[in-house]
Design goal:
8 helices, 2 domains, single chain, globular, 5-stranded mixed beta sheet, alpha/beta, Nucleotidyltransferase, domain 5
Length: 259
């Protein structure tokens, strides 16, 4: 049986397909302004790549920020549940998930069966989110991939202390204007995001194993500062961390199709 999961985030749309517990493929596209259209497009491109027809898919589950816009899905499930399911599917030993999304960040505690035990969210401010890191990369006139590597060359961490994303941008611009090393400022930005994640983890009781999902998990500088902030190794999943939500949705679609 082939099932699919569609994860519509505020920045990217993801789709993943499973066949009897095996990953057939996955696709990531920018979301755009129309969540339904983005969901349809990412699914169409995925099935074209893996060489199947839409009729071969037994069930589709939608998740993420725009999940309710995907009206062709059989069901919509929260991204918290799907990230838990996706991470557990890839590595059953994972107990804590940090998902830094485009518009919020969240930490999720799961049990040995991949069920959500507890979670905490930061959805009141853009600081500590993917959009915050994108805004920071623009200040450096870099794309997000370049920016993710910049802080790896830092000699020290220059703290970015502003709690608001708008003030943080002004603070970073001022630091750079004073000729502070860009790599040290970038390390400070990643450290600020990491500290926010650590604060959320403390609220739900942190212990191994911890992983990071979502596009921000590709930010090597962030993972480095996060490891230091939580004083714990961050487990890297052997798949693209950006597709974990869609993958978890495909896992639920399998259960839905069997039910």
């Amino acid at each position: 049986m082939i099932t699919a999961g569609i994860d519509i985030g505020s920045i990217t749309a993801k789709a993943a397909a499973l066949e009897d517990g095996r990953i057939l493929g996955a696709k990531v596209l920018f979301t755009g302004y129309n969540s339904r259209k983005s969901g349809q497009m990412v699914l169409d491109e995925l099935i074209a790549e893996i060489g199947i027809t839409r009729e071969k898919i037994s069930a589709i589950i939608a998740t993420g920020y725009g999940r309710n816009s995907v009206d062709f899905a059989d069901k919509a499930i929260t991204e918290i549940t799907c990230h838990a399911s996706g991470a557990h599917f890839i590595d059953p030993l994972i107990r804590f998930i940090i998902d830094i999304g485009g518009q919020d960040s969240k930490v999720i505690r799961i049990d040995e069966n991949g069920r959500v035990v507890d979670f905490a969210m930061n959805d009141k401010c853009a600081a500590g989110t993917g959009r915050f890191l994108e805004a920071m990369s623009r200040i450096f006139r870099m794309d997000i991939d370049e920016f993710s590597l910049l802080s790896l060359n830092a000699r020290k961490v220059i703290p970015v202390t502003a709690q608001c994303s708008v003030f943080a941008e002004s603070e970073v611009i001022s630091l750079l204007a004073r000729k502070s090393p860009p790599e040290d400022v970038a390390a400070g930005i990643n450290s600020a995001v990491s500290k926010r994640c650590f604060s959320l983890l403390k609220r739900i009781g942190m212990r191994p194993l911890v992983t990071v999902t979502g596009g921000c998990a590709k930010n090597q500088g962030l993972i480095k500062t996060l490891t230091k902030a939580i004083n714990m190794e961050v487990t890297t999943l052997p798949v693209d961390p950006q597709i974990i939500g869609a993958l978890g949705a495909a896992v639920f679609a399998r259960r839905n199709g069997q039910g």
